[in-house]
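**Discrete fold encoding**
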Amino acid sequence: MRSSADIYRSASLPQPSPAVLRLIAALEQPAFQLQWVSQLLESDSAAVQSLIEAAQHPYFAALQPVRDLPTAVRTLGLPKAIGLLIYRTLRPAWDLLDARDAPWLLRYRQKTAIYTAVADCLEDTAPGLSCGTAFLAAICMRTGEAALLATLPEQYPGLIETAYAEQRAIHTVEETTLGFTHVEVAAKLLNQWRLPESVQTAVRHQQAPIIRLLQGKGDTSFELLKIIAIAAGVGEFICGPDSDSAWLRLQALTTEHLEYDDAQLSELIGRARARGIVVAELLDIPVDGLWEDDAGNSLTGSAIIRSGLFDGTHPAADADDADDPAATPPAASLNDSHVLCEEHDAGGSSGSSLLQPASGGPASAVAMSSLPPGSSTVLPTDASFLRRGDSIAMTANLRDPLTRAYARAFFEEVLDKAIAHSRRNATPIGVLALDVDEFGRMNAIHGAQAGDFVLREITQVCMRLLRECDVFARYAGDEFVLLVREPTEKGLHELGERIRSTIERQVDWPDGSRSVTVTIGAVL
């Protein structure tokens, strides 16, 4: 039997390229700049190409063509970009399994997609978490298993097979067979690669007893820790060898941390299965069996996206009981520096301000409290149904067809939940209302098609300036609204001014004669 020390000395151990390691080290630099990415990755052209290709995937819903690295990183966000590069490092280990003809193989591979889908869905339940960090941590969860596959190619697949045959959790079989677990190996490697401490802590505790998780309440890393623990539970329930034990652990975890009942937990599992199909296609993992239609055909990522289920509402669909207002934030967002992601991120007092365009214009603010609530998308709540992966009715109209911003109905539903969440937790929310100046005159002079083009340009500008946890929607005609979670009054004002000035710099009237200006009202 090889010791864990042999694993770390093995020449087969997965290792990111020096360029990727430099990028990881830069992740927590407080003044990180987007242009640094090109400099840090200039020696790894394969990594650059992989990010450009990933950013073009429908999972990230890019609002502009992705042809270069800066655009790719803006679309992905830096933490997700690093997560994808780490997955690329681990991928050869998974490929070693392809030659095996085993019934457990597909489910074992698909766990990565489920982990990532759940973590990405739940990230908004942690207001202080940097955008994309949960996605990164979920990818890192399987670092240890990939390392063991690469360094123990004869022994470790047999261990996995034993776990599935005996319906035992893989880490318990590792403890009795190897004397150590893949979680320990992952923790060691992530420390060597200098991943953020919060990511290391979350991965290290992914299978920890619930009582130990509760001891971490109040720590800065606790929010990520609970998300990863729940992601691990959902992944084990859907794809692991011991789904019964996984279900019991999930019940305890989600009752304690999300106040879910069994119906809401089952709904989360359904969302994870659907979103997991899209993630699986992003990561080039077969989707067979994750979800099937009535004819027994496996659903594809494109079918999930077309149905609206990928962008559906938070699993806790009841507006009064939902723990979070926006489980599926806009996927194409600017995250080229942590400063931008944090500028309107924390606390603040109530109040309001009005932002005027530099060239003047009518001042208007929208009273958001009068908006009617939307309707929720309800998924099946029976756990055995979700295990079978049967088809469900998947209907939602979340995107404005012209601009691809969120639609008014979805925004109203999210806002309603956000207000309820804000009242329960005494946390602020902010809304920006944006109106295009002289838009009627523009249409009259240049035609409706030219006006439509301007609306699409404005949407692209705004989406590039937002965090993934912000919700940007077309409200009506030339009116847009933006929901901002937990801003300060200063941060909300600065965000509005940044949007206004950027539109004025980057968007012109159809004839190029002058800049487009907007009026923005802010309510906190």
